Amino acid sequence: MEIRNAHFPGRAPLDAYGNGGFRFAQMSHKGSILCVPSGIYGWNVSDASAFSEEAFEQVLAEQPDIEVLLVGTGLDLCPLPAHLKDMFREAGILADPMSTGAAVRTYNVLLSEDRAVAAALLAVD
């Protein structure tokens, strides 16, 4: 897995999603993204079947600053595998899978409330 340099170093609401990408902070990104306290990163995961411990390394690395992880699983809800749910629970992170659209909306609300939130979002067309 490769996480590229932050497109935006810090937290920002997501302005739009769809067409295979996201818009935020007057920027756009084609593909999936990982929103953590240190920034918004390109995320080389394009399907929920590719969710692995390695895919979420950056989330775990920033764990003290993350209480809730919203996992946008694409157009439809896909449950997280049990071993990932256990991994997040042991780290003290509530991982909540939902469609990408619902995750974007929830992320923006929690971010506006200054909550310790992160999001792993699969791009949708």
UniProtKB/TrEMBL annotation:
Q: Which SUPFAM superfamilies match?
A: MTH938-like
Its domain of life reads Bacteria
The name this protein carries in UniProt is Uncharacterized conserved protein, contains Mth938-like domain
Species, as recorded: Roseibium denhamense
Q: Quote the Pfam families the UniProt record gives.
A: DUF498 (PF04430)
Q: Which InterPro entries match?
A: MTH938-like_sf, NDUFAF3/AAMDC
What CDD domains does the annotation carry?
A: Mth938-like
